[in-house]
Design goal:
By secondary structure, the protein is mainly alpha-helical. It has one domain.
Amino acid sequence: MPAAEKFCQHCGEQVAVKKITASSILHEVFHYFTHLDKGFPYTLKQLIRKPGTMQKEYVEGMRSKHQKPFSMFFICITITALGLYWINYMLVKYFGKDNSDELFFFQQYMVWLQFLLLPFYSLAMFLLFRKSGYNYGEIVVLMLYTFSVLFIILVMIHLLKFIVPDLETRYLELPAALVYSLVTNFRFFKLQPRWKVALKTVVACGVIFLLAALTQDNLIKFLLHK
């Protein structure tokens, strides 16, 4: 095929869309450590304005304008880890809160813990939506982009501690994650009945939230109180 015919003359996307697979996901990991795309602001805006639709378009081949999923995830989780660290640092220093355990966790382990848990989050989603026609690699992409926004939302919620220092943020984190995930999944899995998508999303959010909370709490206890 001539070079001019390999790409759409209007949008610049490849004419032949490559299927997302587990091996292509590994390639994305390598790509993150060797390149940094310029589409971060655009991708974040699209994830906020068109959740689910943006991920679906990326999976189906509209990828040239977007930040790659793994690099998007690492940028957002790094911003989140730094943001939560400084929020807890300020609470300890100026509000007298005893958040030293969380401060240590966010500084040392949050990024890598979430990265290691992501395959399990994705597996839960893949099993719940296994009849959707998407393979595991494509569900990983969905989760990478979805969690990128959820991490930013997490920082916004923790900022409320400057107003209510004793706020138990988990009671806000789960509803916020559930609402965003519902909107995202309704659009991403739009060929499935909405009630099924809603039910599976609630189950997935519950499993993921419980896994993340238990892992974080037990890791903090193990590292600091062994």
